[in-house]
Amino acid sequence: MNERRVTAEVEIDRMKHVLSNNIKRYRKGNRISQQTLADMCGLHRTYISDLENAKCNPTLGVLLTLARSLDVELSDLLDFDSRK
What are phi and psi of 73, to 5 degrees? Predict the structure, then answer.
């Protein structure tokens, strides 16, 4: 495997973890359950769980729906500096 591909995979994994932590943080900050968020987004609860555990790669449409449902900007979900 070439070095660029390995580097890209590591970066994608890092971004998935940032995203998962931010989704969970905003969801809990809004005091809503995974099921409630799933219902708001038209998604399944297990998909929300998979997102919060960095097990999947959401589409841009899913990210936009999540951001709207959580009342945040898309950039907030992808914000590396928001890890607290």
Answer: -80, 155
Q: Which domain covers residue 49, as residue numbers? A: 3-79
Torsion of CA 78, 15, 43, 73, to 10 degrees: 0
Specify the pTM: 0.87
Longest dimension (CA), the chain: 44
Instruction: Give the C-alpha separation, 66 to 38, whole Å.
Output: 9
Q: Is the pLDDT of residue 16 over 70?
A: yes
In a domain, 84, yes or no: no
